[in-house]
Amino acid sequence: MKKSYMNKIKTIFFIAVLLTINSNIFAGNTGKISGKVSDEDTNEPLVGVNVIIKGKAQGASTDEQGEFYLIGIPPGKYDLEISYIGYAPLTMRDLLVRVDLTSYIDVKIKVEAVQGDQVEVIADRLMVQKDITFTRRLVTEEDFFNVPGMESSADVFRMQAGAITDIQPVRLDLGNGQQLQVRDESLKNIHVRGGRGGEILYMVDGMPVTHPLYGGRSVLDLNISDVSQVEILSGAFSAEYGQAQSGVVNITTKTGGDKLAGNMELKTDNGLPVIGNSYNTDYLSFTLGGPVPMLGSKITFFTSGNLNRTDTWLNNGRTRKNLNWLGLNLAERQDNSANLNGKINYNLSDQMDLIFSYNNAYKQWSNYSWMWHLAPDNMAEYNRQTDRYNLRLNHFMSKSTFYNLNVGYMTVKYNASIDGSNEPSEWWVFRDGDCTEYPDSIDCNDPDGFFNNDTLGDTLYSDITNPLIDQVTGFFNNTGREDIWRDDFTKTLTIKADLRSQINKYNMIKTGFSIAMNDLHYVDLADGATNLSVYGQQYFTLPGDSITYPKPPGPFPEYGRTRWVFDAKPIIGAVYLENKFEIESLILNAGARVDFLHLGESVDSEQFRADWENATGLTADWKLTKAKFSPRFGISFPVTEFIVLFFSYGHFLQTP
Predict the structure, then answer these.
(1) Which of 487, 509, 491 shows the shortest CA–CA distance to 500?
(2) 132, 184, 219, 507: which is deepest, by most CB within 10 A?
(3) Which of 26, 27, 25, 46 is nearest to 35 (CA)?
(4) Per CATH, which fold does 135-423+484-650 belong to?
């Protein structure tokens, strides 16, 4: 089995290397500028006109047809400087570049009548992008600024038709107020064009940030002050994108400019109930970026952060504590989140850039539940922390070919428990027992509790009871607690290479590969503070050599009758190849990708397969490694400046 898996990995790696060497690969977070320059009076194309991006060491000259192209342009707005001997220089300002798309300009320059004449024009933002072959929606930095209430990248869905956010948590009710979690409840379901929740690929600067466990949900909710633009892709998107069925969210973050600049923003609704609702919300954000002092312009940085505390529109009325964040003693609210981002760009040469980025997101919260509204202090607390590191190399091999190499590492840690307790055992105490034998005993002279052992003389007692419904009100009373203990910790190492080459003015080849190695740890104890496991009952009431029940998997095997535990190390990878053909009346995207999944050795043991068959009654005959071929095709017909007809088709899959 292991030998077969290694042979498959070697084959896929060989294909990826072969594509990298013999093709020219595409990077998934850049756009293209192309156009034509002609004489304003004669309308004749001009040969050898210089077209340069202002502030960047990147430019091109027009060919015999007066045409040019520039590839590998990060998304954003740029000024183009167009110059030709004997003609007045022209500057085109605010030309918008979008990810994967071509920004086309048709420029006419005039003979210089007076030396020193300069012409400035503002680039038009097209009503319709002519080279789209599937539905794309763009939200820029200006859009975020102009819409009130926008604070994070997730707010982009509030501006989009066909996108719905589902806030209903997913749980399995076990009775007696006990539950098993299906996923982190703060990770909302986004439904795009009628799709199910969790069918979206989230990307930041060309790298995936989707949750490794729960799939199709972002764990990196960036502050909008860190975002340059967001594109939402839906329909039959190109072969470059995988692990999604409903849509792709492609986020591009800001980089430092040539001047040191920053801002700070403070928003609050405290003290405003006279003119509107107050949710006890305080929001603070900052940005700072530019060249690194004393290191010249070759190294720039950009950093941003935000702090958001709110009792939300569904205040649960819980008694609030204080938060000790970065040494600051802050008053807790129902929902508390912090975000810190940093990016350093090192211009190694005119052809090569090295970029390091770091993102941190922390969230601590408690929920609102109508069943618990009489006893909100008895509900559980939650927290999640995400750390992401990424190193990216951009290298232009020529004016028409470049590649990107990314190495990323992301960790996600999620916890839920009573009062934020670290261990279920904190709620259990020994009484009337042998304090020497059981040093955890806190008082050996108290009355007996629940579990007695005549031989050892020990009693184990829990301070927690299951939730009880008041027969008068129909809601949980103040005697029971929401007994949950959850611990998720995932680590993902991702290697991704993309390469693009404009082989001629009509065809651009895109290819690349990615591989993500996951380490998944998941524990959910549904009743660890109120019930012992069968093993735990024997452990605390029988001598060690008399225990007959096997120890359940995971930590704290003595506690909880119901648990959901697994540790796995699956590997996910893909290889893709695509060609983009462009002429004035036709744009064609055609490509394919191969996705593979290796389940990991943890599900390949004979014991695991036997346990699976005993528990489910199904045959454990799964393959350890699976692969899937997915063709993609899209075609666009620009009809007028305002009308484009397009059609797309593809096969799409996602790891559950």
Answers:
(1) 509
(2) 219
(3) 46
(4) Maltoporin; Chain A (2.40.170)
558-588: buried (b, 16+ CB within 10 Å) or exposed (e) per residue? bbbbbbbeeebbbbbbbbbbbbbebeeeebb
Confidence of residue 594 (pLDDT cuts 50, 70, 90): very high
pLDDT per position as a tens digit, 185-243: 666 677 777 777 778 888 888 888 888 887 767 777 787 788 888 888 887 888 888 88
Return the sign of the alpha-carbon dihedral for residues 433, 435, 438, 439: positive
Is-contact 200 192, C-beta < 8 A?
yes
| Encoded amino acid at 588, one letter | L
Element (H, E) at 287: strand 282-291
Q: Would you state the structure tokens that stand for residue 427, as one six-digit string?
A: 């709620």
- Using only C-alpha atoms, the chain has a radius of gyration, in whole angstroms, of 30
- Secondary-structure breakdown of the chain: helix, strand, coil percentages, each rounded to the nearest 5: 10, 50, 40
Give the angle 481-483-485 at the CA atoms, nearest 5°. Answer: 145
Kind of pairing between the strands at 485-502 and 459-462: unpaired
Residues 6+ apart with CB under 8 A from 534: 549, 561
Give me the residue spans of the domains in the chain.
31-122, 135-423+484-650
139 membership: H or E segment, kind and range = strand 135-140
Q: What is the pLDDT of residues 143-183, one digit of tens each?
A: 777 777 777 777 777 777 667 776 655 555 555 555 555 55
Q: Which residues on adjacent β-strands are paired with residue 630?
A: 593
Look at the block and give the residue holding tokens 């950009």. 302
Cα separation, 175 vs 467, whole angstroms: 10
Cβ-in-10-Å burial (0-12, 13-18, 19+) of 445 comes to exposed
Instruction: Provide the token pair at 341.
Output: 């981002």
> Is the C-alpha dihedral spanning 187, 193, 194, 195 positive or negative?
negative
Compute CA 30 distance to the chain's CA centroid, rounded to the nearest angstrom.
19
Longest Cα–Cα distance in the chain = 109
Question: Residue 630, class by beta-carbon neighbours within 10 Å (0-12 exposed, 13-18 middle, 19+ buried)?
Answer: middle
**How confident is the model at residue 178, as a pLDDT?**
56
Residue 571 has pLDDT above 50, yes or no: yes
β-partners of residue 124 are none
pLDDT greater at residue 189 or residue 264 = 264
User: Which CATH code of 3.40.50.261, 3.10.20.30, 2.60.40.1120, 3.40.605.10 fits the domain covering 31-122?
Assistant: 2.60.40.1120
Phi, psi of 305 (to 5 degrees): -165, 160
**pLDDT (mean) for 464-489:** 86
d(CA 581, CA 114) in angstroms, rounded, equals 42
Tens digit of each residue's pLDDT (9 = 90 or more) over 358-386: 999 999 999 888 888 899 998 889 999 99
Q: Which residues contact 175 (CB under 8 A, 6 or more apart)?
A: none
Sign, CA torsion 187/193/195/199: negative
Query: pTM for this structure?
Result: 0.82
Reading the block at residue 506, the tokens are 């009509």
Q: Tokens 């290697």 identify what position?
A: 495
Comparing CA positions, the residue from 165, 327, 136 lying closest to residue 231 is 136
Pairing, β 459-462 against β 282-291? unpaired
